[in-house]
Amino acid sequence: SIADRLRDGSVRLLRCSWLASPSSDAFLGRDDSGAVAMRRRQDLPPEAFVPCDEAVAMLERGDRSVLALSYGWLTALHPDPHGTTLAAVRRYIEADASDTVLFWDFA
Q1: Which of 34, 55, 73, 93, CA to CA, is 20 to 30 A from 63?
Q2: Which residues are bridge partners to 104 per DSSP?
Q3: Are 100 and 73 in contact (CB under 8 A)?
């Protein structure tokens, strides 16, 4: 089940508050123009993620505190090489979802 994968850490949820914060830029990638782009989960710091037990509890609440993002990759090597999707996600988080967590199929 999804709860089992959250519990064992094979699936992790990003803290939207971390993703929206300017300090997260230091851990994210950049394209040739300098635009911030998402990095792989393995390349993000531990503080970017909700602890496993907390992730399970949030999922089991059954409200809209857990978001999911999945979409077709823009290139074979990176789903969002120029940070377009990341910018849109950040705008949404800042407007409506700072107290949520996010499953992103790349992070």
Answers
A1: 73
A2: 69
A3: no
